[in-house]
Amino acid sequence: MLITFKCRSAPDVVMLENLAQYLLGIIGKRLGPRGVINHDELGVAISKLEAAIVTDKQERAEHEGHFHEGEEGHDTHEIPIGLAQRAFPFLDMLRAAQKENTDIVWGI
Prior knowledge:
Layout: E1 2-7, E2 10-16, H1 17-26, E3 35-37, H2 42-64, H3 83-99, E4 104-106
Antiparallel strand pairs: 1-2, 1-4, 3-4
């Protein structure tokens, strides 16, 4: 199922339900049929998401040494997309909404 986040300050952001649930969980919200991130919650939400991205990047860097790209006798591994790439459109929306003091809604 697709979830569409709407905000007057940014273009709509559409994502799969499992990613929406994960990102909302990071910022302390629950995915319901309808919901809102109030403009006064945006500062904390942005900080939490940015911190999660930094942690994800650090963990990925630590595990990067476990990929044996091009080494003989090892299968090549595709490095999965990180949180920074998956969360960027949503984080961009959060920042735009904070800048213009607007709310973000879904399910409407």
